[in-house]
Design brief:
Blueprint (H helix, E strand, L loop, with lengths): L11 H10 L15 E5 L3 H9 L1 H4 L11 H17 L1 E2 L18 E2 L1 H14 L7 E8 L5 E9 L2 E5 L7 E2 L5 E7 L5 E4 L2
Parallel strand pairs: 2-3
Antiparallel strand pairs: 1-9, 4-5, 4-8, 5-6, 6-7, 8-9
Helix pairs in contact: 1-4, 4-5
Length: 192
């Protein structure tokens, strides 16, 4: 399923600038990720293995929707930039291992490791884990599978990605959304 295009979509950086300048939009142009659901799936096996090894990292608790405000924007942007800077992108096969989800070791990891580390740091900063869910996507033009962290707010669903330091609305990223984690533990698979 191709996600709807939102020509008015703003990046988190643009919204931060608007807030700081006093020109915050009355309503942000981001929407909540809502695509037709094909079915509900169990978690990917690699995620199950990660959760078995790190159960506290997968216990999604607290509020599932965060209030959108300048402090949240700053935190999301700061953690995204820090994790993207702290970790070198090295795909699992290049490290001699099969697809393996984990918190990054030796400052190396691939996309899901970045997303898990961002969630870890945001939870340590006080955000409820239920508002921070994993998603598996496909790049629209490069056609590779990818994992990102989604942040659900009352002003839409925001994407934290290791390929960009800019936090963006889900409908402004170049991805087809394949699956998304739910706070209850299941994953929604979206219709193609």
């Amino acid at each position: 399923m191709r996600r709807p295009t939102n020509p008015m979509a703003m990046t988190m950086a643009g919204i931060v600038a608007a807030f700081l300048s006093g020109n915050a939009p009355a309503q942000t142009p981001c929407t909540t990720l809502a695509l037709p659901v094909l079915r509900v799936d169990p978690p990917p096996s690699q995620y199950v293995r990660f959760c078995t090894d790190h159960p506290s990292e997968c216990a999604l608790t607290g509020a599932a929707v965060l209030p959108f405000n300048p402090a949240l924007i700053r935190l999301l942007s700061s953690v995204t930039a820090a994790v993207n800077s702290d970790i070198d992108l090295v795909p699992d096969p290049d490290r001699g291992i099969e697809e393996y989800w984990n918190l990054p070791h030796d400052c190396q990891g691939d996309c899901e490791d970045f997303a898990l580390e961002k969630r870890h740091r945001l939870v340590q900063s006080g955000l409820p884990s239920a508002s921070l869910t994993m998603a598996i996507v496909q790049h629209e033009t490069r056609h590779f599978p990818h994992a990102v962290l989604l942040v659900e707010t009352d002003a839409g669903t925001w994407v934290l990605d290791n390929l960009s330091d800019t936090v963006m609305c889900w409908d402004a990223v170049p991805y087809h959304f394949d699956r998304r984690e739910q706070p209850g533990g299941q994953w929604l698979r979206f219709a193609p």
